[in-house]
């Protein structure tokens, strides 16, 4: 196939590679940045690491630009580089696997888990890239229980929807080994995901419902009024709660959850002046909680609470300690 018969991006990339000019190279590859970053995030469960590995992907692509001949789609070639960058990263780190939680009954902790800001998702996404079912926190945590190469197989096959032959070529495996790895990965995912969320290949959903938005408003209002009864009423009695970095996921009653927050100092004098901002991360409703302590003229970012809402109540609450860490493009103070 000659260059003038290649699809647009592939032909443009080869022309950029031959010119040795980084400007047209960047112009062609930059459009893939956001979806590659989501891919790296699924592999690594950490937003900052995903940013680093996406940048590493483009650096490797530039260094290997002359090896691209257009036999595979440019997008596939970049995904291969991104996947290998993540696998190399994981091979060098011994702190990127789930560990037993310190609290009895809390299961496992993914201490490096970070939320993913929706504003950084692809603006014109393919459903397979940002399907809500495959970017929610519970799904991302479950993926971390897979060995790295099995994780890669699962993501390209069951999340991106690639055929076994394409996955095998991308990961430099045989088709039978890809099929075997995928079968093992599906078993682990079903063991790790809550029982009501086993179909990660269901039709994609993107937008929050009016019900979800209403619960977030009520959750923020209860915080700002220090209304513990209203807060308790918003929580399911089988609440799945985790605070990161820290304890693993616990199943607690609504009253026990609120009592635990109070015994930890929240809503008491000095920790009772709240302001909140509604946001979304991982295609999930979330609230950024800002606390003003005595003597401080400003409310400072304290916690990001990511919520999963079922039938008008909060079924899962994952809190991220955000003190001193202005994540997700949120203001550090109000």
Task: Write the SSE topology.
Layout: H1 8-19, H2 22-29, H3 33-44, H4 47-63, H5 74-92, E1 99-100, E2 108-109, H6 127-130, H7 137-143, H8 148-159, H9 164-171, H10 175-192, H11 210-224, H12 228-234, E3 235-244, E4 250-252, H13 254-263, E5 274-281, E6 284-291, E7 300-310, E8 313-321
Parallel strand pairs: 3-8
Antiparallel strand pairs: 1-2, 3-4, 5-6, 6-7, 7-8
Helix pairs in contact: 1-2, 3-4, 3-5, 4-5, 8-9, 8-10, 9-10, 11-12, 12-13
Domain RNA polymerase sigma factor 70 region 4 type: 139-188
Domain RNA polymerase sigma-70 region: 30-94
Protein name: RNA polymerase subunit sigma-70
Characterise the protein shown here.
This protein is α+β, with helices and mostly antiparallel strands and 334 residues long. A hairpin with a 2-residue loop joins strand 7 and strand 8. The protein has three domains: 1-93, RNA polymerase sigma factor, region 2, helix turn helix motif (Rna Polymerase Sigma Factor, Chain: A, Orthogonal Bundle), CATH 1.10.1740; 125-206, Orthogonal Bundle (Arc Repressor Mutant, subunit A), CATH 1.10.10.10; 210-329, Nuclear Transport Factor 2, Chain: A. The chain is 45% helix and 16% strand. Mean pLDDT is 87; it is low at 1-6. The chain is built from 13 helices and eight strands. The N and C termini lie far apart (58 Å). The strands form two sheets. Strands 4-3-8-7-6-5 form a six-stranded mixed sheet. It has helices spanning 8-19, 22-29, 33-44, 47-63, 74-92, 127-130, 137-143, 148-159, 164-171, 175-192, 210-224, 228-234, 254-263; strands at 99-100, 108-109, 235-244, 250-252, 274-281, 284-291, 300-310, 313-321.
């Amino acid at each position: 196939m000659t260059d003038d018969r290649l699809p647009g991006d592939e032909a443009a990339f080869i022309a950029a590679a031959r010119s040795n000019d980084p400007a047209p190279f960047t112009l062609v590859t930059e459009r893939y940045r956001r979806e590659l970053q989501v891919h790296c995030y699924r592999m690594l469960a950490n937003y900052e690491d995903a940013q680093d590995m996406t940048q590493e992907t483009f650096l490797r692509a530039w260094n290997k630009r002359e090896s691209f001949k257009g036999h595979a789609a440019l997008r596939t070639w970049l995904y291969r580089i991104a996947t290998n960058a993540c696998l190399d990263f994981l091979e060098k780190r011994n702190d990127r696997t789930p560990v037993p939680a310190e609290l009895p009954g809390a299961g496992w902790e993914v201490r490096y888990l970070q939320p993913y800001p929706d504003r950084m998702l692809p603006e014109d996404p393919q459903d397979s890239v940002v399907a809500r079912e495959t970017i929610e926190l519970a799904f991302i945590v479950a993926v971390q229980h897979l060995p790295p190469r099995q994780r890669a197989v699962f993501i390209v096959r069951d999340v991106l929807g690639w055929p076994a032959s394409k996955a095998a070529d991308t990961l430099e495996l045989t088709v039978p080994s890809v099929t075997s790895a995928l079968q093992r990965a599906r078993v682990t995912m079903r063991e790790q995901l809550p029982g009501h969320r086993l179909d990660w290949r269901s039709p994609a959903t993107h937008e929050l419902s009016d019900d979800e938005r209403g619960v977030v408003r009520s959750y923020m209002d209860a915080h700002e009024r220090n209304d513990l009864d209203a807060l308790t009423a918003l929580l399911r009695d089988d609440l799945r709660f985790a605070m990161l970095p820290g304890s693993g996921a616990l199943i607690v009653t609504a009253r026990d959850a609120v009592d635990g927050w109070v015994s930890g100092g929240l809503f008491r004098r000095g920790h009772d002046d709240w302001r909140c901002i509604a946001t979304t991360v991982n295609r999930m409703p979330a609230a950024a909680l800002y606390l003003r302590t005595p003597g401080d003229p400003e409310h400072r970012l304290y916690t990001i609470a990511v919520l999963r809402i079922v039938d008008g109540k909060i079924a899962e609450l994952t809190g991220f300690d955000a003190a001193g860490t202005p994540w997700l493009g949120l203001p550090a103070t109000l």
